[in-house]
Description:
Rossmann fold, 6-phosphogluconate dehydrogenase C-terminal fold, eight-stranded mixed β-sheet, elongated
Amino acid sequence: MTPPIYDRVALIGLGLIASSMAHAMKQFGLAGEIVGYAKTEETRRTAVEIGICDRVFATAGEAVQGADLVVLAVPVGAMAEIAADIGPHLSQGACVTDVGSVKQAVIEAVAPHIPEGVAFVPAHPLAGTEHSGPRSGFATLFQNRWCLLTPTEKSTPDATTRLRRLWEAMGSNVDEMDAPHHDLVLAVVSHTPHLIAYTMVGVADHLRRVSNSEVIKYSASGFRDFTRIAASDPTMWRDVFLTNKEATLDILGRFTEELFTLQRAIRMGDGDELHAYFTRTRAIRRSIIEAGQDTAAPDFGRAVPAKKPSE
Amino acid sequence: MTPPIYDRVALIGLGLIASSMAHAMKQFGLAGEIVGYAKTEETRRTAVEIGICDRVFATAGEAVQGADLVVLAVPVGAMAEIAADIGPHLSQGACVTDVGSVKQAVIEAVAPHIPEGVAFVPAHPLAGTEHSGPRSGFATLFQNRWCLLTPTEKSTPDATTRLRRLWEAMGSNVDEMDAPHHDLVLAVVSHTPHLIAYTMVGVADHLRRVSNSEVIKYSASGFRDFTRIAASDPTMWRDVFLTNKEATLDILGRFTEELFTLQRAIRMGDGDELHAYFTRTRAIRRSIIEAGQDTAAPDFGRAVPAKKPSE
Lengths: 311, 311
């Protein structure tokens, strides 16, 4: 067995991502010791009970002492306060990273609290489920998923390379980009789709002429995929939209323009425009399948794919 | 083996739904003989080659002669012309049904061409994949999926009961409702979600600052579910929006109102409103899982669920 990549990893926040990292680090022997901090005593107790942390601490400051990797895995809106708490307790030579879905806001919140002699390498694993909490994690969450690093002035090449090794060892593909570009890309592929899904589920919820039981019964015809997206952690997503405001509003504006164009085509009965639009979007799906980001198996709206197509 | 429910079934149109019905009817012995019609010779040849039709005909009129069940499985916009073609050739005592995603428009298009002594029972199986064509069908497509019947003045109780038996024998749960309510429910759970998904994929496609390869690589973070929805058959969906115009525009209007409310909350930094909204939508997801319409397994954005959570 190769030696662990870090001697002591401190997980600050013990939700889905941190607990999945703990499972993966333990399974692959990537950390000598895993210590943790969570806001509530219940979560800290659970973390020890289910074995994701070797030790837990009642303050973040205590948890980071002596750690060579500190992972900030709290909602983006809580990063500034946590960073201020841990700043004075960080060890020389340590690396601080985070797993936030937004990068510019996290950098602004955290970087000022990182002392000389400590590296800061922001990261964002593009992985998750609609579940949350310390019991929701599992070791394979990051397998074959992207992890984006957005190095800053406080990211030394050594610290970045070592963190990249950790993510690769947990099964991720790692890319690097600058933080503003990250935030725009994520606004397109994740943040705006989530807001739209939340909105559509909200519309269905308070439409009086269609009962909720009908919505639920017949959800498999398209709506169901939206409800899965719209079931994600409310606090995390509130913070995403508040902190990636500009990019999200930009993409939302384009979305609305586009939607109005299609809405007008429906109202005017312009079948050619609709057909041409739907043909273009189909090609993107094909590219995603070719890129290995999904399979072509027909699971659209199906709980359990029963059988491959009989081609 | 129980006797077949129909002696001869004529499938008019040989795409995903019709070919799946053929596979299911053959597998469960529900039809004495299956004959078919498709517009192109290539599709007709394929249908015989892969065994979904015992015989095919070059015109719909020939195909329906002597059939006791005629299934109209063409895009909604083609229903009127097909109905006019087959009207004079239908056998006394036969039942005509369809599988269109919109019901009022189909009834208006088809009913006038149904002669005295022939029943017409509109149906809509809520099942599909993003694939199309005669080779895309498979016998289990309808298993555990809803099929909605919207009986009309031309639906005799006997014809409706017999058609219900067919759908149940193919694995569906069957509900009955009136056509206007069907169209509204489907606008909520299927048509509007599809339009929104098409729109979001379209936005991603022509955003210059984010490359298509980035969109494709990082699609698993939410966007991917949209691309699957937006890959469905363009002709079918064009016709859905053109023929379920009023209900779709109604739901789209509500969606836009709602989206603007959330957009404003983002712009104003109103975190409480966002959090409360996202908490409400999460409850709907829970109801869908409790209703057995999906599983809680964390497959969000994952091509192949690797492992159950380690709870």
